[in-house]
Amino acid sequence: MAAPRPSTDATRVPGERGILDLEPMDTGDFDEEAFFRAIASSGARALLIGRRAMAVLALPVLTADYDFWIAFDDVELLNAALEPLDFVPNKTPEGARRTGMYALENSEHVDVLIARSIPTVDGVAVAFEDVWPRRQSVAYASGVEIVLPSLDDLILTKRFGARTRDVADISLLEALKRGGPS
């Protein structure tokens, strides 16, 4: 049976059910729906990447944190949106822009990439401004969409590192692209 594929449309008809109809994950006192709702309404161009993005696509992976890649100029928007949820950045926006990354923390940990472009391990430059127009949206809860890179771009983001699990994750993503298990 082919795995369900998320919509590649950046918008969805009001009232339309998500293709995957995800149930919010139970993470204790952390209100994941409020977290994703805050990001979705922030105005920040934020892409969920990493293993949490794979979990949204219903792939069998475990992860303990959230990884986002956001537009270079949207640090303040994201920080302001998550401040009411007690997320605290570990760097100033200027410091984050200098290093290309920072973290937001409360009881959860959110790694945030803000580099304009990131090379893969084999030297392919992946630019946020190229990835953003190809994004896909997945319905999470009523009125809440999670924005992910396209499958091809998510595979590229997994090539930012050379970890063993990234190789396994790429195999899962490629199987999803083909429409089912390999």
Proportion of strand residues: 15-25%
Mean pLDDT, to the nearest integer, reads 85
How does CATH name the architecture?
2-Layer Sandwich
**Alpha-beta classification:** alpha+beta
How far apart the termini lie comes to 12 Å
Overall structural domain count: 1
Strand numbers in spatial order across the main sheet: 1-2-5-4-3
According to CATH, the fold-level topology is Beta Polymerase, domain 2
Order of helices and strands: HEHEHEHEEEEHEEHH
Main β-sheet description: 5 strands, mixed
Shape: globular
Output the keywords.
two-stranded antiparallel ribbon, 182 residues, single chain, disordered N terminus, Beta Polymerase, domain 2, 7 helices
Structure report:
The chain is α+β, with helices and mostly antiparallel strands and 182 residues long. The protein has a single domain (32-178), classed as Beta Polymerase, domain 2, CATH 3.30.460. It has seven helices and nine strands, in the order αβαβαβαββββαββαα. The chain has helices spanning 32-41, 50-56, 75-82, 93-99, 128-131, 151-158, 164-178; strands at residues 46-49, 66-70, 88-89, 101-105, 109-113, 117-119, 125-127, 136-141, 144-148. The strands form three sheets. It has a five-stranded mixed beta sheet, sandwiched between helices. The protein has a two-stranded antiparallel sheet with strand order 6-7. Strands 8-9 form a two-stranded antiparallel ribbon. The longest helix has 15 residues, at 164-178. Mean pLDDT is 85; it is low at 1-27.
